Structures are given as structure tokens and as C-alpha cells.
């Protein structure tokens, strides 16, 4: 591969990451900035969304449905969904009380990656949404590690006794194959390695 082709692909990947971040911001945190109104499930008309994104960010070439689908296809994690001419972010919302996800029976064990500096607070209060609508849990340790690395290069991995929490009445919501959500989770359902010390 020539240096020019490599550079072009690298720039393209960076461009897709930039677009994905802007999409997340619009659909998770501040749709009003874009003149968008999400329905109770977090969806908005795809054509309105594209027009707003292009108006605010002046994408060149213009952002299209095809570009969004390419970003979705190439992503390691499912962050967005397009259905019946509408688009939504699947999780990560900080807009209170808007987004609803289906309640489902969780796997017996889930995981949560976090920075070590948060463990003292977690021991006392459990897992709280901290400015988001839900607490995010991962279906596997590797995903939890990747999430935790955003704030700690060697994150703590909490093991969640989801089966016990569910039996005790805690509601779990299914965002996608990798992400489960809860409103909050008491510390008694968490352990770090063999225990949450």
C-alpha cells in the first residue's frame, strides 16, 4: 500500500470517528441544539437529522444515510439504529426521562469497567448513572475493559450478580448485544475479582 493510500484511509477513519461523536452528541445529549425533538424511544426522522447535521457542521462532502450506514457497519459497538426512516442512539443518553428501552431478563453475570479512583464511592453508594439516564453494564469483560479505559488505562472490572439483582426486583433494560442498562445498582451485587474490597 502506498503512503498516499494509507494516509487517505487514516484520514477517512478519523473523519468517521468525528462524525460518530457529533451524531452521539446530537442524539444522546443535546438534540435541541440541532433543532431536533426525539420521541420517547429516542428516535428522530432521519432526513431531519441529516439536514440538521449538515447545517450545523458543514460536512464536505455532505453527510448522507449511506455514510451513516458505513459508520455503523464499521463500528466495533452498536451505537445507532435506523428503522422505518428514523434514527436513534441506542444508549448513553443524558436527557432525563426520554429514552425507553425494553425490560428484559439479563444474563446471570454482567460487567462494569471503571477507574480505580471511583471504587471507594461505588462501595458506599453502588453504581449510579452519574449524569446519564442509566448505568451501563457490559455483556463481557473485554467490552467493560474498553469502556473503563476511557478514564483509567488499567481499569477495575466489576462483576455484577445480575441474576440476584433481577430476582430482587431490579429492572434491566436491553440496549444491544453488548450493553445492558439499569437505573442504579446497589453495591451488594458487585464484586471486584473475588470481592469488592
Q: Mean pLDDT, nearest integer? A: 85
Determine the CATH superfamily of the largest domain: RNA 2'-phosphotransferase, Tpt1/KptA family, N-terminal domain
Q: Structural class, judged by helices and strands?
A: alpha+beta
What is the CATH class designation of the largest domain? Answer: Mainly Alpha
Form type: elongated
**Unreliable residue stretches:** 1-11
Task: Please name the CATH topology of the largest domain.
Answer: Arc Repressor Mutant, subunit A
| CATH-scheme architecture of the largest domain | Orthogonal Bundle
Q: Spatial order of the strands in the main sheet? A: 1-3-2
Helix content: 25-40%
Describe the main β-sheet briefly.
3 strands, antiparallel
| Total tally of structural domains | 2
Quote the distance from N terminus to C terminus: 51 Å
What distinguishing features does this structure have?
disordered N terminus; 9 strands; elongated; alpha+beta; ADP-ribosylation fold
SSE arrangement:
Blueprint: H1 3-29, E1 44-45, H2 46-57, H3 65-74, E2 80-83, E3 86-89, E4 109-114, H4 119-125, E5 135-138, H5 141-148, E6 156-161, H6 162-167, E7 173-174, E8 179-182, E9 190-192
Description:
The structure is a single chain. This protein is an alpha+beta fold and 197 residues long. The chain folds into 2 domains: 87 residues, RNA 2'-phosphotransferase, Tpt1/KptA family, N-terminal domain (Arc Repressor Mutant, subunit A), CATH 1.10.10; 84 residues, Alpha-Beta Barrel (ADP-ribosylation fold). It has 6 helices and 9 strands; from the N terminus they run H-E-H-H-E-E-E-H-E-H-E-H-E-E-E. The strands form 3 sheets. It has a 3-stranded antiparallel beta sheet. It has a 3-stranded antiparallel beta sheet with strand order 4-6-9. Strands 5-8-7 form a 3-stranded antiparallel beta sheet. Strand 7 and strand 8 form a beta hairpin. The longest helix is centred in the N-terminal third of the chain and has 27 residues.
